């Protein structure tokens, strides 16, 4: 038989007496503990705390009340923790004395467990955040290292570019010097060529002046000859105009004569045509008169005797 069955078989009066004894023992133990804690509180000058601490509060509410210090979560001993234990034991003692039960005690235990669970969750979140913070710090350190590396790399590139540009500048300065020497030489040659060309141009100008004078003299002679030829041309034009007028008159006479000859030829042809047609008509009319016996071509009547003799002759 188990202990529970034995306890159930015990009468109720005995059960009540055993519970009362255990309760009295707990009360006596708690009373001694509370007395000792109060003595320690008076000696250590522990601060008083509110009874609201035994109620459930969220982490935000607890931090707002500023009850817990920085080392409270790690379980370090401090006067506030001892004050909390004293208050906790005092409330438990009063509950056992008055009501003979520890319902508030069990509720308080669950509340404390919830608060511990909240603290554990907070600790886990803070650990995760610390991991993220460490990652961020590592990333920041790596980024600084990379940035320093890039800076040094860029500085080295700039130094190399400075060296390259300095070499290029030296080469370009040498080229500029050679080009300046060539330009000075070209300027000197240009001046010499310019002097020579000025002399040549001066000689050409003198020759041009001579040719101008010759041109004026020749043009004067040619103008005189041209005037003589112009007078001759005018005379020839007058003669030509007279000949043209005479030619026009003769041409008019020739044209009139040609028209006269053409008209005479037309009249002659017209007359010949009329004569031909008249002859044709006369011949046709003569034939008609002969056939029909008109006019002088009419047939004469013959005698009868002569007609018979002619008939006999025909019979023979």
TrEMBL record:
The keyword Cell wall biogenesis/degradation does not apply. GO terms for biological process: cilium organization. Residues 295-310 have a biased composition (Basic residues). It comes from the Eukaryota. It is found in: Cytoplasm, Cytoskeleton, Flagellum axoneme. The keyword NAD does not apply. Its main location: cytoplasm. Residues 295-316 are annotated as: Disordered. Residues 201-282 form a coiled coil. Keywords: Cell projection, Cilium, Coiled coil, Cytoplasm, Cytoskeleton, Flagellum. GO terms for cellular component: cytoplasm; motile cilium. Belongs to the DRC9 family. This is Dynein regulatory complex protein 9.
């Amino acid at each position: 038989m188990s202990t529970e069955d034995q306890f159930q078989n015990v009468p109720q009066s005995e059960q009540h007496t055993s519970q009362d004894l255990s309760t009295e023992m707990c009360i006596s133990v708690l009373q001694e503990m509370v007395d000792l804690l109060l003595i320690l509180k008076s000696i250590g000058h522990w601060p008083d705390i509110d009874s609201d601490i035994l109620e459930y509060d969220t982490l935000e509410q607890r931090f707002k009340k500023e009850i817990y210090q920085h080392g409270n979560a790690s379980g370090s001993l401090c006067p506030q923790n001892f004050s909390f234990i004293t208050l906790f034991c005092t409330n438990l003692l009063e509950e056992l004395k008055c009501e003979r039960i520890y319902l508030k005690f069990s509720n308080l235990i669950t509340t404390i467990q919830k608060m511990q669970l909240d603290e554990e969750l907070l600790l886990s979140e803070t650990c995760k955040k610390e991991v993220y913070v460490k990652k961020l710090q590592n990333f920041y350190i790596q980024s600084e290292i990379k940035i320093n590396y890039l800076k040094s790399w860029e500085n080295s590139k700039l130094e190399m570019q400075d060296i390259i540009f300095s070499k290029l500048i030296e080469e370009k300065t040498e080229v500029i010097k050679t080009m300046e020497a060539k330009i000075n030489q070209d300027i000197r040659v240009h001046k010499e060529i310019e002097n020579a060309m000025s002399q040549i141009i001066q000689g050409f100008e003198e020759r041009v002046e001579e040719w101008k004078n010759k041109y004026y003299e020749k043009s004067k002679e040619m103008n005189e000859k041209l005037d003589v030829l112009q007078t001759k041309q005018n005379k020839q034009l007058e003669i030509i105009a007279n000949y043209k007028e005479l030619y026009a008159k003769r041409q008019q006479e020739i044209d009139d004569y040609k028209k006269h000859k053409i008209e005479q030829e037309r009249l002659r042809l017209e007359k010949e045509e009329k004569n031909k047609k008249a002859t044709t008509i006369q011949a046709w009319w003569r034939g008609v008169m002969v056939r029909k016996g008109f006019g002088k071509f009419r047939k004469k009547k013959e005698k009868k005797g002569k007609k018979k003799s002619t008939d006999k002759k025909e019979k023979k």
